[in-house]
Amino acid sequence: MINKKVDNVKEALLGVTNNMTFMLGGFGLCGIPENAISELVRLRIENLTCISNNAGIDNFGLGLLLQNKQINKMISSYVGENDEFERQMLSGELEVELTPQGTLAEKCRAAQAGFPAFYTPAGYGTEVAKGKETREFDGKMYVLEPAFKADFAFVKAWKGDAAGNLIFKGTARNFNPLMCGAATITVAEVEELVPLGVLDPNQIHTPGIFVQRIFQGEKFGKRIEQRTVRKRS
Amino acid sequence: MINKKVDNVKEALLGVTNNMTFMLGGFGLCGIPENAISELVRLRIENLTCISNNAGIDNFGLGLLLQNKQINKMISSYVGENDEFERQMLSGELEVELTPQGTLAEKCRAAQAGFPAFYTPAGYGTEVAKGKETREFDGKMYVLEPAFKADFAFVKAWKGDAAGNLIFKGTARNFNPLMCGAATITVAEVEELVPLGVLDPNQIHTPGIFVQRIFQGEKFGKRIEQRTVRKRS
Amino acid sequence: MLDKIGIAKRIAKEVKNGYYVNLGIGIPTLVANFVRDDIEVEFQSENGVLGMGPFPFEGEEDADIINAGKQTITTMPGASFFDSATSFSMIRGKHVHLTILGAMEVSENGDIANWKIPGKMVKGMGGAMDLVASADNIIVAMMHTNKRGESKLLRRCSLPLTGVGCVTKVVTNLAVLEIKNNEFYLLERAPGVSVEVIQNATEGTLIIEGEIPEMDI
Amino acid sequence: MLDKIGIAKRIAKEVKNGYYVNLGIGIPTLVANFVRDDIEVEFQSENGVLGMGPFPFEGEEDADIINAGKQTITTMPGASFFDSATSFSMIRGKHVHLTILGAMEVSENGDIANWKIPGKMVKGMGGAMDLVASADNIIVAMMHTNKRGESKLLRRCSLPLTGVGCVTKVVTNLAVLEIKNNEFYLLERAPGVSVEVIQNATEGTLIIEGEIPEMDI
Hints:
The complex is a heterotetramer, with two copies of chain A (233 residues) and two copies of chain C (217 residues).
Chain A lengths: L8 H4 L8 E4 L9 H10 L4 E4 L10 H6 L3 E6 L6 H8 L4 E4 L2 H13 L3 E4 L13 E4 L2 E7 L5 E9 L5 E2 L8 H4 L5 E9 L19 E4 L17
Parallel strand pairs in A: 1-2, 1-8, 2-3, 3-4, 8-10, 10-11
Antiparallel strand pairs in A: 5-7, 6-7, 8-9
Chain C lengths: L3 H9 L6 E5 L3 H5 L9 E5 L3 E4 L22 E7 L2 H9 L5 E4 L3 E3 L4 E2 L2 E2 L3 E2 L5 H7 L3 E4 L11 E2 L14 E3 L3 E6 L2 E7 L5 H6 L5 E2 L10
Parallel strand pairs in C: 1-2, 1-5, 5-10, 6-11, 10-12, 14-15
Antiparallel strand pairs in C: 2-3, 3-4, 6-7, 8-9, 12-13, 13-14
């Protein structure tokens, strides 16, 4: 077993600097690397490019880095519900590259899997395809999209072990497994770091080879963005 | 829940005919759809194109279809250890398209995921790339490989439910999950068909949407090709 | 004239036995409530769940189990969770049979615009561009006109497109329309709404063939 | 002169702490037995397992747990199983640090041939083409000459290629050689083997710089 365990978030983020490109897992506030984000806020590094499906809300998730103006460019599919984001974007302070969600997912997967680029139908005929190569296969049009390149990927899992194996819970899985191994260094924070051998080898979502550092996260807030319930009848 | 359960292999294979293209899961004899193969032998349909990493052995797996001369063309990555196969291939009775294993896997995944083709470095500069488009990305050369097209995919899983959800065991997973949803109709045979709700939604390897028919398999032989053991010291 | 609930009810009739369905945010989400319970249907949400159920009972919300609208949900027996790449494999690979989503504009050739108002609103396309680029069966749920009373069924969309030539049907507060041959075909009128009202509210080419029945919802 | 075990022992020294390693069929498989046990290493097999262990005890074989050579195996704590696409993501994505495989021919520019003898033998490339096209560190384990005594280290391969310009090192029964600048650089001699013997058994350009040490295995 190759040991990936580090003691805390500080050690896990060694080497992050200004001007880097980061991938951050999560959909909305679900499955986001809360500990890594807090540490990035504390470190005050800036001029960052962040690849993440969403941009958090004003006072949680990536919203915290936005408030601090640490982010220079966001690559996301959906950025609603964030006033500070909208302000920075419309004022031109923040560069935003909107990418169809399936394309965003596959650009991560391509980076993980060593594919340089791929053809997808998403965005053909729209401004997303502007300046990009398009091509017909079997009578349908596709857009060529390159794989992402990033320095660090920050992901959040439910359970993990020292070998770097990860298991996610529910829809908190989302982009997290795709970002593992898609950046030079992948840092995983887990709710529960279990002893080696506890996880069933047949039920690993992300094999440890895709993870360089893993640590036990602290105080996960796990906020709910839209609390919807029904009454008991 | 959309019910995919059928009563037996006969019902599961309704619609298979001569001249079709099939995908068959498995690596060597590990995780092969034994029940489907037996039924194809019984049905005596012929002039088949089979996509499968290997071609079985003389008296098991796809070797049974070869003995019957039901297969016209094989698309595989490795076909050693099969005398009848070698004879048919060298005599020209059998057409063989050898494909790098990772390319074979991805051609299945591309079909499943709606990608028309992909660029892979495998086979560049070899006869595998002959006649294919090649292209440079970041100083490295890649070959464009199209997605597979197939009429039926036959896969074998460990456990499954009526919704078509599948769980595989150990290395019997291999190509099986990638072929699900990669053909017009996917037929899954399982060692154990469990009641709906028994499988943990978090631990499904193949969501039921990729499977059209599922049935409880019978009498799995699960032969071992190379029995290697060590002595107890 | 229909309200949002009415639109959802009418669209629910388009959901057939054996369908996997992706519901967009807003009116489409309501459709799930009105699907006949004697047919087999599964709802997919692109953030990574198949087999969505109703909202959880109070106190049973789980922050790790949400839909694409970020609402807390439950799952049905036979459900599964998966990553975003697998989710879009389902969509891009045409395994999802029906996509229902909202729009700001639809044109007579089936273009749709629903993600951006230049200089004003840029929330992003989320999964909509993947959905409309891949699905064979796309129903748009929307009001027939915008807040200024202008038609949203146009000859050409004025807003940045989400997808081209992809919408197959539109269900509005006034009518059900099919898009074919680069024209809107009027199929049904909302209760109490005349053909003339629909004609006046439709900027794109409207084809009216024979007697147009009132919706049965 | 080394036997197969000797070659495996020498290659085992190339396996460094923290390496994920893919071992081909034949001599490479033996390498696992000789890796120092004070370093952290994991073995990947392209049929879908990471963290391979030794062969099972008699009676404990599981038909569902095999390596790429179709041999029954066991797994170590921390192991994982995955599908073939994920397996080649590890390989193509350069997450595997070292690939060790056999060859029929290697050329001085790093080409390798190991999958086909036209008209005679066609077993297929299996995962070898993916491995050699992607890995940065590829060691070939083979005999220096074939059964007819002809060199397998050539100016140009005569057999159909598996990959081009990819081999970084060759370990044979006679020597350890590095491939750079389109030449074979002699690094080490097998015990008791002279430089002259190696020179005579090598058809490709052989660079001999200074005193060539004997292997320490």
